[in-house]
Structure formats: C-alpha cells, structure tokens
Specification:
Elements lengths: L10 E4 L6 E2 L1 H14 L9 H7 L4 H8 L5 H22 L2 E2 L3 H9 L3 E6 L5 H8 L8 E4 H4 L3 H11 L5 E5 L2 H10 L3 E4 L12 E3 L4 H5 L1
Helix pairs in contact: 1-2, 1-4, 3-4, 8-9
Length: 214
C-alpha cells in the first residue's frame, strides 16, 4: 500500500459503474425490455454485454449495440432504453461494492468527493438518492449533460470547484486515458469491470482499501 498518498490530495473524483456500484444486471434487463418492444433491434442485451461496454459514452454504447440501425432508429432504441434504465434503477437500484458507505463517510471527512461518469442525465442522481449519498458528494458531472468526453468533464469539475490536487478513481482503460488527458492522477479499481495498461498512482483490490491508502 502506497502510504505516501496520505494527505497528498484535496479531492477525489470517482467513476460510478464498476467503481462505486454494479448495476449491470438491472441495466441489461431494462435495455432488453426496450429491445423486445422494438422489432428492428436484432440482438438480446445481456449482463455480460453491458459489463463489456461499461464506461463508454452513452451514444457510443448504442452505436456498438446496434451498428446496423439508422441513426433515427438507434436514437429510438437509446431513448427507450434510457427511460427503462432509470425506471428500473429507481425501483431496484444496483449492487454497492462492499463497505462502500462507511468508506465514503471516512473519505468525506478528509476530502471533497465528486462523481464523473459517461452515463445519461439522471443516472448519478438516482445512485445518490437511492443510497442517501447526496450528503457526501459536493458535485458531479456526466456525459448526458453536455455530450462531452469524460476527460473534459473531469477538467470541468476541477475548474468549477477550484480543486488543487484531485485524484480520480476508476476501473477501465477509458478511465485511465481520460484522467491522464485531464492531467489528474488515477487510482485503479482492480475489482471493477476492466484492466488498465499504464501507470496509475496506486491500485486497490477492494473499495475499502481506499481508507488505508488515502
């Protein structure tokens, strides 16, 4: 464990899917419901498929899911999937990683906490509200707000909240690349959905390790 990171940062920016929770089972069910209502979508949506595309920008996800569709039909599929996704998550939520809430409460006493995700509008809010976590996070940004790439949303949070020494926590190569491009060091969440080629400042095998690390 890299104890040199203690008292080094003033803020932590978290990815959401694969870092704070795993909602892939319920998201897959929601997108599959949309697929079954639209006779022009060919392929079933499974949890493994959702896991494989977690972290991609929302528009890019549906281009990958249905590259054969016209833009108009793909947008119809995306809009219906997005609606059912929020409906399902508001009802059922997702699986929080072990010791998530006590670890966040500990970190909140030392750092400003944020979320930046490539999700649609309303998704982060659903996560925070369902789990009574609004009190712990100072702000958040997502792809759905401005259609910006993740690195730009990280930069916006850093600038908007005048962060001096932030660190990003994420679980995919896309998270790593975005943090590097934003000029923010990253801690790799190895328990999540992806692998990382690069040089994160630290790696954690479970979320609770952040208490010892930071």
């Amino acid at each position: 464990m890299n104890t040199q990171l203690k008292n080094h940062f003033d803020s932590i920016i978290f990815d959401l899917d694969g870092t704070l929770w795993d909602s892939t089972a319920n998201v897959a069910a929601a997108w599959q419901q949309a697929k079954e209502e639209l006779d022009f979508v060919k392929d079933d949506v499974t949890q493994d498929i959702v896991r494989s595309i977690a972290g991609m920008a929302y528009d890019a996800i549906f281009e990958k899911l249905a590259p054969y569709l016209t833009e108009e039909r793909r947008n119809e599929f995306k809009a219906l999937s997005a609606k059912y996704e929020l409906d399902t998550l508001n009802a059922k939520g997702g699986d929080l990683y072990p010791d998530l809430i006590p670890t966040l409460e500990y970190l909140h006493n030392k750092y400003q906490l944020f979320v930046v995700s490539n999700c649609q509008c309303g998704y982060i809010e659903t996560f925070l509200t369902l789990n009574n976590l609004e009190r712990l996070f100072k702000g958040h940004q997502c792809y759905g707000t401005k259609g910006q790439p993740k690195f730009q949303n990280i930069i916006d949070v850093v600038q908007d909240f005048e962060l001096k020494n932030p660190v990003y926590v994420g679980d995919t190569q896309g998270d790593y690349d975005s943090a590097v491009k934003a000029g923010v060091p990253i801690i790799f969440a190895a328990y999540g959905f992806g692998d990382v080629q690069g040089d994160p400042v630290a790696t954690v095998a479970q979320f609770s390790e952040l208490k010892e690390l930071l």
